[in-house]
Amino acid sequence: MSTPTPALASTDAVAHTSIPAGTSAVPAASRGDAFASFDVEAFEVPTSKDEAWRFTPLRRLRGLHDGSAPATGTLTVDVVAPEGITVETVGRDDPRLGAAGTPVDRVAAQAWTSFTDATVISVGQSSEISEPVMITMTGPGVGLTAYGHTQVRLAAFASAVVVLDQRGSGTVAENVELVIGDGARLTIVTVQDWAADAVHVAAHHALVGRDGVLRHTAVSIGGDLVRLSPTVRYAGPGGDAELLGVYFADAGQHLEQRLFVDHSEPHCRSNVMYKGALQGLSDEGKVDRDVPDAHTVWIGDVLIRAAAEGTETYEMNRNLVLTDGARADSVPNLEIETGEIVSAGHASATGRFDDEQLFYLRARGITEEQARRLVVRGFFHEVLAKIAVVEVRERLEHAIEAELAAVGV
């Protein structure tokens, strides 16, 4: 059964009905059947007519999608790792690379074809690392293009926390692999805090072993165009994946999240919760009339295959539009091939400030500006409170405050 939800209104799916393939309500093919290859030439150049690219402003990708963007710079990768972590710089011929997944689009394949060195971070069997691994990735610089590859590997029953902090200028395409062994637990926070000129396209490939646990948080607050595509697959039963996200778009920014959770093993769990806010300038406030309004895109696809009995899954996306002109597209999809599951559902909602909340706060002597900020803080709190690294959580809270102050919200 297949139940896409293209509308922006709130939808909580409990029962599902079949929709004939080929209708306008469903994609022509499941993402589970998507073509995959490490060879960039095996992919056609995407166009706006392709389902996977219809929301992305291709002209702003600076050639990442059509082969016209050779590497002209390099990414600087700095790793601060506690004792017990192995950090290596390896070449493309390292047999461990590609273990978590194969590119399913031309940009990811271009990144695979074009990177020179990969960073591999490994945690040994049964090792429990209490201090976070801090990876700082800095862009190649204004007008330059770079490709990257990062892999985090946890052996059986290992535990670690990783922060991937991305900043700087330039154009970047990359693949990030997360290989989680049986009974291992990985918590990873990725922060896209790029400069205003940056374009960043990334594919995250996660492979969760038997009874493995993944806690993946993606935060997008900077850059001109940022497109993230996290994919989760299970290598054995009992896997548990939680994907959290926060994004905040200003005028001119395009922030896109395209998730795919592929349930192919029995008795696995997934939970997806992404929250975003958008704001821009009114036509009167725009200095440059050609600057587009803020635009966010969230696509959440969950596939429950016939063999994935006992699956428990839920996905939710909420968007808060703070100013006129900003646009949020939100499309949750569930594809279910077996009725022997525990639960499956999805929800999506996009709206403005809750007038009742503002009235309640203002009636207690709080100014309208303060009331609006309190509402936004409360909106994001549910996700931010789950970020395990205190320093990162506080930094994001300050960044959100700065965003609100920029337009007087």
UniProtKB/TrEMBL annotation:
This is Fe-S cluster assembly protein SufD. It comes from the Bacteria. It comes from Rhodococcus antarcticus. NCBIfam families: sufD (TIGR01981). Residues 144-379 form the SUF system FeS cluster assembly SufBD core domain. Belongs to the iron-sulfur cluster assembly SufBD family.
